Amino acid sequence: MTATNLSNNVAPGAAEYGGDEISALVLDPGYSVVRGGFAGEDVPKSVVPSFYGILPSGPERKHVYGENAIYTPSPNIEIGNPMSKTGVVEDWETATDLWEYAITSRLTNTKPSNPMTNGLNEKTDELKQEMEGVEMQERPLEENPLLMTEAGWNTGKGREKPIEIAMENWGAPAFWLARSGVLSAFSAGKASALVVDIGASSTSITPVHDGIILRKGTTRSPLAGNYISDQLRLIFSTAQPPIPLTPHYLINSKTPVDAGAPAQATYRTFLPGTEPHASFRALQEERTLTEFKESVVAVWSPGRLGGHNQHGGTNLDLARTQAARPFEMPDGYNQLFGVERYRAAESLFDVKMALLDAAHPAPSPAHALPALIQHALSQVDVDIRPHLLANIVVVGGSSLVYGINERLKQELEALYPGPRVRIFSPANVVERRFSSWIGGSILGSLGTFHQMWISRKEYEEHGPGIVEKRCK
Fold first, then answer.
1. Are 384 and 392 in contact (CB under 8 A)?
2. What pLDDT score does 57 carry?
3. Residue 29: in which H helix or E strand, if any?
């Protein structure tokens, strides 16, 4: 292995990485969605759910991808996800197919269908050999370098596998792997920042200094968007009377009813043995809960919901006097939600306010957002802590819950009364949800970045381990 081949200062030739004329692709896989698009563009053109459908197909099971496939109640459909709730890949084979779908469905041409399976041709050895040759020639990324994102706590094996897929399966001429926290900082125009990413399955805190992730300070928590959904389920099930959570696909028709009155709806039925799997219903319920979070849920401020205010009363009592928000369920049931809208997200900051049952034990105090940030800052050099506190970047789809930034600023100012606390968070919903992809789009479009690509030649010479050496 020569130093020259691994140097970041030697630009690969145009033929090795695609050249300036060819746009790089940016792929940002997450637990909830996979985002894909061309470097230099403002938003990803391809946004595909990370969930996929599993359909019975003879002795084998068929996987289907995309919104139309997973939101259609096909007979016996089951829902899976190749990502773990920590944001790393568990099922590489399915992840490869899902990512390829995200690329080919909107960004590049799809592979030609196999004429041997379309029912129009006889299966001959000549046709089989011809089709094998086509499959070898058609690769989705032969003309596009690929920049992929990864979680800051990704494993060594989890870092090497993407370059194998890009080079071996997709024929990419060049590759780069970037930490999502660093890219979120770049999307906010900052080389140094404390990135707070509140996603679907986890919340992560990533200290970034001069474009480098400080791994010792990287922390994460399961208290995120899905956790808020679980809290909402508990709120609905323990209400008197219980609030129904019936997803859209089960409703045939509905009649308007008064607030709090039972729903008047006709429900869809399935033939015995054809009902969608429970995982399908759970995914559809999550869509309704997401609508509720976006329109009703809010974070209490000032002070903690379980604490006392300056007038001597409790904040819970004060919250009951605030204007309630209406919401209508898919079956027509509707109600005004008052203090409940503050309870759902409160335990992101104060775990003592978490609603519990046998399936949902008390969360650890260390997983609360202020404690996570406090731990992250304790692991970095004391000299850069004030700079990080003055450059907090809040991103992620679940950070869109109303009032979360104001409450976070208040909590951090109580923890750090000396340094200045400043929070930067895009007002644009798209920029908040797609921040790491946007950062990758910015990075991949820079002329100076072209010397960073790992070329196919380097991959063939050094193998997938080159990612560990080059993509710090």
1. no
2. 80
3. strand 25-29
φ, ψ for residue 150 (rounded to 5)?
-150, 160
Q: What is the spatial distance between Cα 199 and Cα 452, in angstroms, rounded to a whole number?
A: 29
In this prediction the pTM is 0.89
Full DSSP string of 61-117: EEEE-SHHHHTS--TT-EEE-SB-TTSSBS-HHHHHHHHHHHHHHHTSPPPPP-GGG
* Nearest alpha carbon to residue 128 among 138, 118, 110, 115: 115
Residue 68: predicted pLDDT = 95
pLDDT at position 6: 40
Amino acid at 207: P
Q: Which residues lie closer than 8 Å to 258 by C-beta, 6 or more apart?
A: none
Structure tokens at 179: 């930490």
CB 35 within 8 A of CB 19: no
Are the C-beta atoms of residues 381 and 212 closer than 8 Å to each other?
no
Burial class (CB in 10 A: 0-12, 13-18, 19+), 312: exposed
Residue 260's CB: how many other CB atoms inside 10 A? Answer: 11
Residue 254 CB-half CA count within 13 A: 18
Tokens of 22: 């060819």
The runs of H, that is alpha helices, within 296-426 are 315-320, 340-346, 369-378, 385-389, 404-415
Q: What pLDDT does residue 276 have?
A: 96
Cα angle value 206/211/212 (rounded, 5°): 60
The pLDDT tens digits for 372-402 are 999 999 999 999 999 999 999 999 999 999 9
- What is the C-alpha to C-alpha distance for residues 15 and 435, in angstroms, rounded to an integer? 30
Angle between helices 225-238 and 278-295 (to 10 degrees): 90
Predicted confidence at residue 19, as pLDDT, reads: 42
Q: What are phi and psi of 102, to 5 degrees?
A: -60, -35
pLDDT in tens, 332-352: 999 999 999 999 999 999 999
Within 151-216, strands assigned E span: 174-179, 193-198, 203-209, 212-213
For the segment 278-298, what is each residue's pLDDT rounded down to a tens digit?
A: 999 999 999 999 999 999 999
CA dist list (Å): 163 to 20, 168, 172, 345, 395? 21, 8, 9, 38, 27
Tokens representing residue 447 in the block: 């002329």
Instruction: Give every residue of the chain whose pLDDT is below 70, as ranges.
Output: 1-22, 109-138
**Rounded CA separation 317/323 (Å):** 13
Query: What are the angstrom distances between the C-alpha of 104 and each of 20, 109, 133?
Result: 22, 5, 20
What pLDDT, on the 0 to 100 scale, is given for residue 123? 54
